[in-house]
Amino acid sequence: MPGRLAHMLLNRRVPVRTRLGLLLTEARRWARPKPVYSPRYGRGRVLLSGSDYEIDWKTLAWVLADEVYATDYDGAVVLDIGAHKGYFGAYALAHGARTVISFEPETENARLLELSAASFRASGAHWLIRRTAVGAMKGETELHVMGGSWGHAIHPPEAFAEYEVGIQRVTVDAMSDVLDDAVTLAGESPLVVKINVEGEECPLVLGTPASSWQHVSELFVEMHPWATCGDDELAAHVEAAGLRSVVGAHPRVLRLRREAEPRSGPRSAPR
After folding, report:
1. CA-to-CA distance for 28 and 47, rounded, in angstroms?
2. What is the rounded distance in angstroms from the CA atom of residue 205 to the CA atom of residue 32?
3. CATH code: domain of residue 93
4. In the predicted model, what is the mean pLDDT of residues 95-114?
5. Does residue 55 lie within any of the structural domains?
6. 121: buried, middle or exposed (CB in 10 Å: 19+, 13-18, 0-12)?
7. Which of 19, 69, 124, 235 is the most interior residue, by most CB within 10 Å?
C-alpha cells in the first residue's frame, strides 16, 4: 500500500514518532512478521494485528490521517460505539478528550482494544472499555464474526456469508442507558458520540427516543450500504433533540451537531 503509507508519512497532523513507528512496523512486517504491532500514538500505543494488518491499517489511516471524526475534543466525554481496536478512542484522547468509553463486543478486537487502552491509562488517560454491543434495547444477541475484523455484524448482508467464521453470543446495552450514564459523567463537559455498528445504525438511533440525545453535543454515525434507512431519516429523528446535520469530512459519515456548540475541527495537534 505505498500510496496509503506515503499519505500517512506526509501527514503532519499525525505525530512524527507515530509516522516513524508505522514505517518501522512496515519494515518489520516483511523482515520478521509478528502477531501484533504497537506503534506509539499520543500518550499510548495503537495495535495492529499481524493477521489482519491491511484492514487494521486502512482503519487506522481512516481515523488518524483522513480525520473523518475531526472536531474539538478538548475536555469532552466521548462514547465510542463499535470501537474495533480503539483507533478512534486513541484519536479522541490525543486531541484532548477527558474520558473515552469504548464499546466493542467481538473477543479479539476487544482484547487488543483493552491492551491499547491500558497503555494510555498507564500515562494517566481515562479510557474505559465495555465488552458489549449497544442497541436500542438491553439484552443478548448473536454476533456474526467475519474473517476480516471490520466486518463483524449482528445482521450481516447475505453477501457476507462466505466470509463468516463463527458466531459469538454477546451482551447488548441499551443506548438510552449508555447515554444516561455518560450525561451523568460529563456534567457540564461536552458529550461526543461516535457510532460505527456495521449496519445496525438505523435500529440503534431510531429505536432510541429523541429525548435521550438531548445532551449530546456532537454525533458521528458511519452509514453502511446495507443500512435499513437513510441519513436524512436519522438526522430527522435527532433533530427534535437539537442536533443538526453539518458538513462532515467524509460523505459516509453523518455528522450532527448541537447548534449552540461552536465545535469545528481539532484545535490542537495530537498530544
Report:
1. 14
2. 44
3. 3.40.50.150
4. 97
5. no
6. middle
7. 69
Residue with cell 465488552: 131
Q: Are 77 and 91 in contact (CB under 8 A)?
A: no
Amino acid identity at 70: A
pTM (2 d.p.): 0.93
Is residue 101 within 8 A of residue 78, CB to CB? The reply is yes
What is the number of domains present in the chain? Answer: 1
Q: Are 39 and 24 in contact (CB under 8 A)?
A: yes
Host domain of residue 98:
70-258
- Segment 136-192, tens digit of pLDDT: 999 999 999 999 888 999 999 999 999 999 999 999 999 999 999 999 999 999 999
Question: Could you identify the residue written with the cell 477527558?
Answer: 98
Cα(first)–Cα(last) distance of the chain, in Å? 27
Residue 103 phi, psi (nearest 5): -115, 120
Per the CB < 8 A criterion, the answer to whether 65 and 57 are in contact is no
In a domain, 208, yes or no: yes
Q: Is residue 192 part of a domain?
A: yes
Q: At what angle do helices 107-121 and 87-94 cross, to 10 degrees?
A: 20
Alpha-carbon separation of residue 253 from 9, 31, 68, 241 (angstroms):
24, 37, 7, 19
Burial of 214 (0-12, 13-18, 19+ CB in 10 A): middle
Please, are residues 261 and 218 in contact by the beta-carbon 8 Å criterion? yes
